[in-house]
Structure formats: structure tokens, C-alpha cells
Specification:
The protein contains eleven helices and 15 strands. Strand 3, helix 3 and strand 4 form a beta-alpha-beta unit. By secondary structure, it is an alpha/beta fold.
């Protein structure tokens, strides 16, 4: 199987368009025509990870963090980034990063994995993303309405939150005047026609626009299909930063910290104490200072994230237990997430989890 098939699958779950502007997710090393012999899943890509891939005969590394964030002007083994990339190229190993695009998806995302481990219920995206949705409006004869709607739904249109097959239809009168060449499917040349038509409207993620358009054109009976795309400013409830949900029942602060330590396998937690029970919990794997105000607005009792600076802890303002569990620690189960997703989909090559702890931070 070629690398392209693996990437198409991953990007159907976490489209590259969902990554943040500073990010560099995607295929960093290698060609899509590469025949896959094995996949090694890791959080980071380092020289040790590439060496592990070589020893295990894996020619694709799928890492959460990109090894390359900025442009590289030369390759002369001057730092770990150059050495890692050169080692991968010399051994025909592809490197793929699936970073903030995986952070920003609700289903099978970094934050949903943490929420599942903690047993959170009633979860939803903490800060939904704007400018990721389009509305499609198209027009068809009444007898073709059902087939067209089914085709659009199958192509990925009509999803709103937990609901699928969402649409709105209205009936009106369409007019047209054929050109000089008579076409038996549209009437006599030059004669004005009025036909009863159904207008169908559906929501579509912007990364699926081309696919949905192709599907519409393939099933529509008209020679010239009338359709319109509109950008909409609704927040996408299935895409965005962080997750918020509820524990099955309220617990005190000590019990919550013990739960967090156990389920995330933590050595230490930096936190701001609170004098209240904990039930509503917000989560942001990786650096999450930017969501502190969002967690307050969500009425969260606790916020699990990492990389909080000293003065940012004051933003808790005795309302919120901010739990900084460490960057690596907050994302390490992303390895399990990717392994499970890939193993369920592909069986023609080996999929392995790294055995190397790439965390550069240790505790004494």
C-alpha cells in the first residue's frame, strides 16, 4: 500500500486545513508514492525515533509534533533537527506530522482521548472554530430530490454537531430559456420554460467542498446544474480548541488530583488550589494558557493543560483549579490514539508504538 492511502485516511479524520497558522503538519519527508512496509507512531520525531524505525523495518514515522517548524537553509548535521531529517532521508523513511489539526478535532482527537481516560460525560468543544463551514444550495426537480439528498449526505454534507442528514428544502418555480440548439431534455430551443423545483440547503465542512460538488454533479439530472456556495460564520461544534465535560459526580480536590495522577500516570502536578467540589472539567493537551478565560466562561471547576507560566496561574482567581501536568504528559496518549485508529483501518503492514520516551523534561 502506498503512503498516499494512509495520508488520505488521516487527513479525512484531521484535515490539514484545521491546523493553526504557526503549525507545520503534513508530510515533511518522503513521497506519497512510497510503498509502506511498516509504521512507527510517536509523539516526537528524533534521531532515536528514526533509528528505532530503521531497526523495526518501518519506513513511515507518524509523529504528533513536527520535527520541522521553520525553514531550514542548510543540512550539515548542525543540530538535532538536521540530523534527524538527514538520517530519515538516507534510509528512505517518510515523516508525517499530525499536530494541531488533530488537537482541533472533537472526534478521535487529542483532547477526547484525555476526556475518555478521565471518564468525562456530556463533552463538547471548548472554543469552536470559525470559518470552517459552508452552505450549499442547489435546485432540482421534485422527483430527484431524495436521490440528490442521499448523495450529498453520503459525501459528508449535512452534519451539525451530533446530528447527521440535516437539510432544509423549499419548493419554488424555476425558469430557463434554452439556447439556439434544441435539446430534447430541456425543451424547445428559444422557448421560455417554467418548472417546479426543490431548493436543497445543507451545511458542508470547507475541506469537503470539492468532494461534495463532484458528488452533486455526478447525480444531478440537469445538463447545467445550478448551485451556490456560501461562507457562513457559525461556529463549527465539532472543530476547535479544547474539550469540556463533566465527571459522573462531584469529587473533592484531593480525589480529583488523585484521579488525574492515576489516569494520566503522572509524577507531579502543578495546580492552583480551590475550595469547592470538582465536576466540570476543561482539557487542552499541550500548551493551553490561551484557553483559561474560555474555561472560566464554561463554568469549569478544573482545567487540565500544560506550559502555564507563573503569572498565568493568578488568572485562576480562586475560581478554577488550573492543573499543569506537563506538555509530554498531556499528549503522550496520543500515541495510543493514533495506533488504535491506524490498526483498525489497515492490516497489510505492521503498525508499532515507539518504546522510546522522548520527554526532554525529567523530575528529581
Amino acid at each position: 500500500m502506498q503512503l498516499k492511502s494512509v495520508l488520505d485516511f488521516l487527513e479525512s479524520l484531521a484535515p490539514l486545513e484545521y491546523q493553526e497558522s504557526y503549525d507545520n503538519s503534513g508530510l515533511l519527508v518522503g513521497e506519497k508514492s512510497l510503498d509502506i512496509t511498516g509504521v512507527l507512531v510517536s509523539l516526537d520525531c528524533t534521531e532515536a525515533i528514526v533509528s528505532e524505525a530503521i531497526s523495526k523495518k518501518c519506513n513511515l514515522i507518524i509523529a504528533h509534533h513536527p520535527i520541522i517548524f521553520e525553514g531550514i537553509k542548510r543540512f550539515n548535521n548542525a543540530n538535532y533537527i538536521q540530523r534527524t531529517v538527514q538520517l530519515a532521508i538516507k534510509n528512505d523513511i517518510a515523516i508525517y506530522a499530525i499536530h494541531t489539526n488533530l488537537d482541533n478535532v472533537y472526534s478521535n482527537g487529542v483532547n477526547s482521548k484525555i476526556a475518555d481516560r478521565l471518564g468525562l460525560k456530556n463533552t463538547h468543544v471548548l472554543r469552536p472554530k470559525l470559518n470552517t463551514l459552508l452552505k450549499l444550495a442547489t435546485y432540482c426537480p421534485p422527483q430527484n430530490q431524495e436521490a440528490i439528498m442521499e448523495a450529498l449526505f453520503t459525501a459528508g454534507a449535512g452534519h451539525i454537531g451530533d446530528y447527521s442528514n440535516c437539510s432544509f428544502s423549499s419548493v419554488g418555480m424555476g425558469t430557463y430559456k434554452p439556447g439556439e440548439v434544441s435539446n430534447p431534455t430541456i425543451g424547445s430551443a428559444g422557448k421560455q420554460s417554467n418548472e417546479k423545483e426543490v431548493k436543497i440547503e445543507v451545511i458542508v465542512p470547507f475541506n469537503m467542498q470539492s468532494h461534495v460538488t463532484d458528488k452533486l454533479l455526478s447525480v444531478h439530472p440537469y445538463e447545467e446544474v445550478a448551485y451556490d456556495w456560501y461562507p457562513i460564520l457559525n461556529k463549527n461544534q465539532s472543530v476547535g480548541a479544547g474539550i469540556v465535560g463533566d465527571l459522573p459526580s462531584p469529587i473533592n480536590d484531593t480525589a480529583f488530583l488523585n484521579l488525574l495522577k492515576k489516569e494520566m500516570n503522572l509524577a507531579v502536578i502543578k495546580y492552583t488550589p480551590v475550595t469547592k467540589m470538582i465536576q466540570r472539567v476543561s482539557i487542552c493537551g499541550g500548551s493551553g494558557q490561551f484557553l483559561i478565560e474560555d474555561t472560566k466562561r464554561s463554568k469549569s471547576d478544573a482545567y487540565i493543560t500544560s506550559d502555564i507560566k507563573y503569572h498565568d496561574f493568578f488568572d485562576a482567581d480562586n475560581q478554577l483549579m488550573i492543573c499543569d501536568i506537563g506538555h509530554y504528559e498531556s499528549e503522550k496518549y496520543t500515541i495510543d490514539l493514533l495506533y488504535d485508529i491506524l490498526s483498525e483501518k489497515f492490516s497489510t503492514f505492521a503498525i508499532l508504538k515507539t518504546r522510546i520516551d522522548t520527554n526532554p523534561v525529567k523530575y528529581f
